[in-house]
Specification:
Distance between the termini: 15 Å
Order of helices and strands: EHEHHEHEEEEHHEH
CATH architecture: Alpha-Beta Barrel
CATH topology: TIM Barrel
Helix content: 25-40%
Structural class: alpha/beta
Number of strands: 8
Largest sheet: 8 strands, parallel
Radius of gyration: 17 Å
CATH superfamily: Protein of unknown function UPF0759
Number of helices: 7
Strand order of the largest sheet: 6-5-4-3-2-1-8-7
Shape: globular
């Protein structure tokens, strides 16, 4: 019997990587067009905190408006430092993303934001974080039902067969969901994203 997997949406940690220039992005592509170009190939991106918290409100609005309707953002959030001003700034930025924001991926399991889907990075958070939200899956971490996976640099260096097995292991743990998400951390080779999309299609995800 064939396993019915959810649709797998593959993305990267940010879209502005030096190694992608001339390989994925055309040499003559303006820097501020890169997200739109990326969004025509992939349907989601995991935005580093250093990027979205330092961007202007106008920039964030352009990101949301310049991507397709079916494109979604996940935002990294390392913590709130107990600072009310920081929390207010985060809330204002989140509102600009509007329906394009699918969720926050937090390092701190105590981070709870009203009306925002929160995921917790298993590499930083207490395993019990699931009581507040969802825990992201990582290779080598205990099995749990989850619909977001984070692949570190070591995972990206696997051969295609090992990568396929890793993706299958993740999909076997996604539980009852229609869509699952997988993000490559660091500065991934664009080929890793394309290979993962191909493997997902072969698996029927």
């Amino acid at each position: 019997m064939t396993t019915a997997y959810p649709e797998l949406i593959v993305g990267a940690y940010g879209w502005d990587h030096v190694d992608w220039q001339g390989v994925f992005y055309p040499d003559d592509l303006p820097e501020d067009w890169r997200l739109t170009y990326y969004a025509n190939e992939f349907r989601s991106v995991y935005v580093p905190q250093s990027v979205w918290l330092h961007a202007s409100m106008d920039d964030i609005e352009e990101w949301a408006d310049g991507t397709p309707d079916e494109f979604y953002f996940f935002l990294e959030l390392k913590g709130n430092n107990g600072n009310a001003k920081f929390t207010d700034d985060v809330s204002q930025r989140i509102k600009i993303f509007d329906e394009k924001l699918h969720g926050i991926i937090a390092h701190d399991a105590s981070m709870v934001l009203p009306d925002v889907r929160c995921y917790y990075d298993a590499g930083y958070s207490d395993p019990a974080a699931g009581e507040h939200g969802h825990v992201c899956w990582r290779p080598g971490y205990p099995a749990r039902l989850c619909d977001v996976a984070l692949m570190d640099s070591a995972s990206q260096q696997q051969d295609q067969k090992a990568l396929a097995q890793m993706i299958r292991t993740y999909l076997d743990q996604t539980g009852p969901c229609e869509v699952a998400w997988l993000f490559f951390e660091g500065s991934p080779a664009i080929s890793a994203l394309h290979e993962t999309v191909t493997i997902a299609q072969l698996l029927g995800a």
